[in-house]
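User: Can you predict the 3D structure for this chain?
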Amino acid sequence: SHAGMVLSVLVILLLSMLYEAIKMGKAVLLRRALLALPRSLSRESLAEAEEGDTGATQGRWFQYHVGQTLFHVVQVVLGYMVMLAVMSYNAWIFLGAIAGSTLGYFV
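Assistant: Here is the predicted structure, written as C-alpha cells:
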C-alpha cells in the first residue's frame, strides 16, 4: 500500500534526522565535560582547594559522562534501525534515510 510506504519513508527520515541530532548532542556534551574537567585538575595541582568545590566539579563531569553514555546507546540503536531499514533494498526507504541524514546534519 502507498500509505504504508509513505509512512515508512517518513519514519526512516525522522530516525535518520534524530541520529544526526544525537551525534551533534554527543559532541556538545563532550565539549562541556571537557570544560568542566580541567578547572578541577588545575585547582588540585595548584593547591588543595575546597573539597566540596572539587567534588561538585567531579559530580558534574560524571553527569556529563552518564549523559554521553545514554546518547551513545540511543545512537547505536538508531543507527542499526536505519541500517536494517536500508537493507530492505527499497529505493524510497534508502532515499528517505539519506534525506533524513542530510536534513539532520544541516539543521
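The two ends are 31 Å apart (CA to CA). The first helix runs from residue 2 to 46.
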